[in-house]
Amino acid sequence: MIMQLTVFLENSEGRLAALCRTLADAGVNMDALTIAETSDYGVVRIICDNVFHAVDVLEDAGFRATKTKVLAVELPDRPGALAELLEALDTTKVNIEYGYCFQSNGDVAIDVLKIKPEDRDRAEAAIERAGFKTLHYDDIAS
Amino acid sequence: MKKPQDILKMPHEQLEAIQLEGIKKTVIACYENVKFYHDLFDEAGFDPYAVETIDDLKKAPFTTKQDLRDNYPYGFFAVPMKDIREIHMSSGTTGVATVGGYTEHDLEIWSDCFARGIWYADGTEDDVAHICYGYGLFTGGLGAHYGCQQAGCTTIPMSAGNTERQIRVLREMGSTILCCTPSYAMHIADTAIAMGIDPKKDFHLRAGIHGAEAFSDNFRAELEEKLDYKVLDVYGLTETMGPGVAIECMEQNGLHLAEDHFYAEIIDPETGEVLPEGEWGELVLTTIDREATPVVRYRTRDITRIIPGECACGRTHKRIDRLHGRTDDMLIIRGVNVFPSQIEDVMKTFPQVASWYQIELTRKNHLDVVTLKAEVNPDFDFDQISAIEQLQKDIQAKLKTALSVGIRVKLVEPKTIARSEGKAKRVIDLRGDDK
Q1: HSE on the CB side for B279, CA within 13 Å?
Q2: Mutate to test the interface with A, among B413, B416, B419 (most CBs of A within 10 A)
Q3: Which of A71-75, B26-30, B95-99 reaches the highest mean pLDDT?
Q4: Minimal Cα–Cα distance from B337 to chain A, Å?
Q5: What ipTM, to 2 d.p.?
Q6: What's B394's domain CATH number?
Q7: Does the predicted model carry a pTM greater than 0.95?
Q8: Please, which pLDDT band fits residue A1 given cuts at 50, 70 and 90?
Q9: In terms of residue numbers, what domain contains A134?
Q10: How many domains does chain A divide into?
Q11: Shared-domain flag, residues B170 and B300
C-alpha cells in the first residue's frame, strides 16, 4: 500500500501549472501524474515523495488536496505481466476502481490500483499468490 | 360571447362602491371563518364589523407570504371543503408552498379576469389561443386556459416544452394569440427562425399575453419585431388568484387592475404607510369577492405604482405600472419563484460541499440558465470521478424536487467563490437586459 496525492482541479487555464509550481517550490518530487477529466473539473493523481507535506502545502495554497491509499504492484517489464496480475485479481472478484502504470527504472513497471478498502486484504493476498510484489511507502519514497 | 364592457368602463365611483361592499364582506368572512384572521384582527385591535369606508381598511393588519406558509395547507380556507373545486400551489419547497383554493365562483372570477386580456387584445370567438404556460399546480396554464375559453377563443392547451411542436402547431393551426412567459415566446421565435421559418409570414399571431416574469421594453420591442404581434403584460400571483389580477391593454401603458375583484394599495415597504397615487412602493392586495381563500392586505413584495389619470383606451379600471423588482430576495427563474433560502435548505443537507456556494443566473437563447457552484470540502472523497458525479446528481435531483427548476451543479475548488466581509454572495444575476 502506498499513499497517492489526489488534487481536485477546476478545468480552467493555468491550474495544472500552478499545482506543479506549488509542489516544485515545496521541493516535492513526482514519480507519476495522471489526470481524470470531465468538462468542468479534473482529478489529478500524483505519486510523489513526502505526500503529507505536499497535502499541507497545497491546502495552504488554496488547492483541494487529499491523500488516497492505493495498491502499488511491481511488474516485470515483459508482455503479459499486467494481464496475469489482473486475472489473479479477477478470480477473487475484487473490483478495481481505477489504475495506471509508471516505470521507475528499465526492468520493472509499477502498477497503481485503487481498490475499495474492504477488498484490499484479499487483493494483496491474491497478488502475492500470483507471484507479484506489492510495494509499501518506503519502497517509493526515494 | 358578449364583452362585459359595462364593468370595464363603469364610472370609478361605482367601482368604489363595489369595492367597499366587497371589502366589508371579505374582512368579516375572514374574521369568522379563518382562525388566523380571527386572532390577527383581535390582536391588532381591528374590528371587521366597523368598516364604513374603503379608507377604514388601512386599519387592518397586513398578511404576508410567511403567514400563508405557516398555515399550510388549509389554514386560509374560508369555506367548507365540499365547496372547493380546485387547488393551486405556488412554486416552493414541498413543505412551504402557498396554497390557493377556488370555489366555482372563484373559478368564474379567474376566468373573467384572464378573459379581459383577450378582450384588451381585441380578441373574439374568432381567435385561436395557443397556451404554452405549464399546466398543473402552476396557475399560469389553467388560468390562461379558463380565460381564453371564457372569451370564447378556440383554446389549444399546449402546455410548456417541446418547442418544435409548439412551432408546428402555431404554424399549422393558425394560432392568433400566444399565452406564455415572455422568455419562452422569445425562445419560440428564435427557434422558429433557426428552423428556417419566417414567423412574420408563417405564423398568424396578433397578440401575446406574456407574464410570470419581468421583461424590459427592449425585450418587448424585439419580440414584437420577430413575431409581428402586440405583446401585453399580465400580472398575477397564486396568493390572490393567479394571472389576470392586472393586464395591459393595447395602449401598453400600464396594466389595468381588475378593480371589481381586487383592491390595491401601494405602501412604503419600510413603514407600511400607504403612499399617495403615483408613488412607487410595494403592492398590497385585498380580494373583494374571493370565497375560498380570501386575503386581507396581502403584501405581494412586488414594487410598482398606481398610474395617475385615465387610460386612453377609455377603461376606468386603474393601472399599475410594470413591475420594478421586489422588496425581498425572490428570484424568478423561468417563471418559477425561487427563494435563496430554499436553496440554502437543500445545500445544508450535503456536508460534502462547504457552506460556500453560489447561484449564477445567465441567459442562453433567451432562456434562464442556472448554475450552482459549490466548493468541495476537504473530507469529501473526491478521488473518484464517479463519487463526484454522484454528488452532483444528488444535489441536482434534490434541488429539482425542492424548487421545480432544473439547476446545473458545478463543483469548484476552494476559495473560488468570492467572499465579501466573510460572507459569500449567494446570487450572481448575469441575465442583464435580456441577453
Answers
A1: 11
A2: B413
A3: B26-30
A4: 28
A5: 0.81
A6: 3.30.300.30
A7: no
A8: confident
A9: 71-140
A10: 2
A11: yes
